[in-house]
Amino acid sequence: MTAPNGHQQASPATGERKEIPMYEPVRVGLVGLGRMGRFHATNLAGRIPGARLVRVSDAAEDVARENASRLGGLGWSTRYEDLLEDPEIEAVVVASPTHLHAEMVEAAAASGKHVFCEKPISHDLERTYDAIEAAREAGVGLQVGFQRRHDPDYRAAKERISAGHIGEVYLFRTTLSDMRSPGFDYIEGSGGFFADVTVHDFDAAHWLVGEITEVTAAGAALSDPGFEEVGDIDNAVITLRFADGALGVIDNSRVAGYGYECSSEIVGHRGTLRVGDHRRVSLETLTPGRACRDHVSDFVERFADAYREEMEHFVRVVRGEAEPEPNGTDAAAATVLARAAERSHREGRTVRLDRERRDGEVLYEEAGA
Ligand SMILES: NC(=O)c1ccc[n+]([C@@H]2O[C@H](COP(=O)([O-])OP(=O)(O)OC[C@H]3O[C@@H](n4cnc5c(N)ncnc54)[C@H](O)[C@@H]3O)[C@@H](O)[C@H]2O)c1
């Protein structure tokens, strides 16, 4: 952990002088400079005062070199190991394709580096648990990239639910849609629609409302025969039953066309919460018979604040000031729920979930699996 380097500040109210800890920025390395990694790298290189991006790595040499230069002449490499062997680096951000996450988390833990890992840790549950265990044994923090937990709107909703403002929750309704699908190269390595897209909604449902006991999913490939060719879908509807009796409904699309949407409604017996402002700017243009406003086109536009705040939180984890949010176990829960949706869709039936406890934390498993 970076050593504090304190200074004193007088309280305006009492005049009393207090020691304010000042830290050197946390030194971070980042691997994977695609859609997500580029955005995290830009944040870490200048928008997060507590962090300093030291080195980036991507298997594609031109991508690594160009991003290093774009971000002000950072060190770069095509080998992930170079980040891990750099003694200056305290923490790594893993934004490579999903199938590489678990091994990269384990290697980071073995090198004593804290890890922020993009979602999901792995499509394979045992690999997910192995990576969690590796971080725990090494005593490093492991935070996972479900950014909605750090979005100011969703956080405000969570605080109101926890404070009892809407009372007992009856219904959780949420929509997550992309404007257009990423390429089939990405889709093929994504682990499938439920593991790649719906997994965000499962984390949100579990975090905002609570334990889930039933998942029923129906999906379809509608926009392009390519989805069927790679054995995937592009639209889905999922219903949930929560342990306390509440119901949930999720709809997802890779091809909404008009823009990116992530909106949710939580209906309780005393009130309803809605999250879903998708404007870039608060401007409406009104002309005869018509009202127009703009709409975000992708997750980076909608969740810019959340991606920055999740990194700020990770910096506090590295400094030992906060627990990872969400942690590896939260990510494992979302993965079990995504697998249950996949099974429900393929087998045309409701999948029931049990829970077990490991090290005091609640985990899901498919009933009778
Ligand atoms: N939290 C979110 O909202 C969100 C959004 C999109 C993607 N993601 C996650 O982020 C991860 C990356 O997704 P993406 O859309 O940025 O993918 P991408 O395909 O755009 O980028 C992946 C990058 O990793 C690089 N790469 C591949 N193999 C590598 C290796 N062995 N070493 C180093 N670099 C390697 C590729 O060259 C590419 O630049 C995925 O796990 C995805 O699930 C999260």
How does this model look, in words?
With 369 residues, the chain is of the alpha/beta class. It is built from 12 helices and 18 strands. The chain has helices spanning 35-47, 61-70, 80-85, 101-110, 125-138, 152-162, 184-188, 193-208, 225-229, 299-302, 304-318, 328-347; strands at 7-10, 17-20, 26-31, 51-57, 75-77, 91-94, 114-117, 142-144, 169-177, 212-220, 235-242, 247-253, 261-268, 272-275, 284-287, 290-293, 351-358, 361-366. The strands form 4 sheets. Strands 14-13-9-12-11-10-17-18 form an 8-stranded mixed β-sheet, with helices on one face. The chain has a 6-stranded parallel β-sheet with strand order 5-4-3-6-7-8, sandwiched between helices. β17 (351-358) and β18 (361-366) form a beta hairpin. α5 (125-138) runs antiparallel to α12 (328-347) and α8 crosses α12. The longest helix is centred in the last third of the chain and has 20 residues, at 328-347. 44% of the residues are buried. The mean pLDDT is 93. Bound molecules: nicotinamide-adenine-dinucleotide. The site of nicotinamide-adenine-dinucleotide has 25 residues, from α1.
